[in-house]
Amino acid sequence: MDIGVWMSRGVLEHKREVTDTRGQVWNVGLLPDEFARGGGPNRLFVAVNGYWRGFFILGPEVLCNARDQDRPYTLVFDPRSWTTIGPSPAPHKGRGKGYTLQVPTPT
Hints:
Elements: E1 2-6, H1 9-15, E2 24-28, H2 34-37, E3 43-48, E4 51-64, E5 73-77, E6 83-89
Parallel strand pairs: 1-3
Antiparallel strand pairs: 2-5, 3-4, 4-5, 4-6
């Protein structure tokens, strides 16, 4: 299952820093049903300024923080897994769930 999110350039630079052996995280408000089915590896694609820039490999676990009503699900990834892809147009960031399933197929 691949999921795409939008980040600023500064946030992406921060997420790519290898400062914690436990990895980095990205919080989302909803999870696609496909996450429950497993079958990884899953990837977190990142769009910056309207273009896909690359992806991280997601860890197998999804953490849940029920106290965070806006973004209760936490996706964990290893920043060392960053893979750059050629910039290609990403869909416009809509309001709501904060992610898209319309991600590119890396070559």
